[in-house]
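Methods — Computational structure assignment.
A single polypeptide chain was analysed. Its primary sequence is given first, followed by the predicted tertiary structure written as structure tokens.
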Amino acid sequence: MKIAFIAPEFYPPVGGVGIYGVNLVKGLYKFSDLEIHIFTPKRGTNYGQEKVDALFNGKVKIYNITEARDTFIYNLKFQLGILKEFPSYQENNKYDLIHITSLGHQPDIFLKLKGFDMPNIATVHSTIKNLFNANLLSDRRFLSFAENEWGTILFYPYISSLERIYLRKTKSLITVSKMYAYILEKKYNYTGNIYTIYNGIDGNMFSPILREDPYRYFPKLKGIRSPIILYASRITGGKGIGTFVKAMKKLINEEVHFVIAGGGSKKLLDNLLTQYNISENKYTILGTVDHQIMPYLYALSTIYVLPSMHENCPYSLLEAMAMGIPCIATNVGGIPEIIENGINGFLFEPKDVNKLVSIIKKILADEALKVSIGKNARETVVNKFTIENMAKQTQMVYERVLNNNVN
């Protein structure tokens, strides 16, 4: 079976969509009956074909269609690149199936509008409407969007219309949580085939047993002796950075240190820290962190907080849980399918700063609880959210999609 894997975000992964693509291919290339050709933008100045080939043992073919930048317009360029170049690749290689790794990016939308028709399936990590609403739910006094986010907001009517067309023209979807399958059926009236396959991670890579000294990668944190409370996500209102900084303010007199990692709007973060008068000795800002060294950041952290207004099956949460640290996340999207409150992590409602602060204090005050939650968290991930499970289930879905198309 030949698979055309169209991935608007891939390597190096800078977010959940990229991590999903890389992890899935890590599992899929090991199946002898699958031949995988990846269509993706070239991303970053350190990108190297040799690195990518080594990642997959030279078992996949990669075609760089355009270049990626952290801007709204790069996605449009990729869409146009796919429209222009993919038909000739299909003619030469005779793919059996297209797998779109992110419905939200709609990378083949112009192919669909043009009437290009072959078996295909798209993975849903989010929808334009839910991302838009998540930003509206954040604290509007501090909304300061990155360039790509402004593009989404300004062109929302156009993009959301295309999304509805895309859904009508896509007969099969993969969702990474049961909640999103429900949303697609009830709120989008989607009538095609929906398959729920949870995201999977590498439990050996994200493991409490480390191969190297974490401070080698994070020397800024070496002198910190207080427990570290970690935020590792994009700096946006929708990801809940406002909630996190408000919690920092309420914990300002506690013996804790806050670490903020992730790209996004530096202006938004600076405004929040200034507004709430957070002393610089209470936090460290790391910016974007290479995904390969994230295990070492989790290892230095005492608690991981994910205060998002909207999530599906977040990779950062699964990775932190696999590292065996207590996680606190909002009760949204697919997160309740991962966290059993008080057993393998903690849930709180979006923007409920007081609840978040009380949970942090509870964990810090009870070492036995911290150890128990961390142990249960890792067991949850290694038993249920693995690359192997994700790849095997996806392979089975490929077969079902092709059989349905023949029948």
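Note: The first strand starts at residue 2 and ends at 6.
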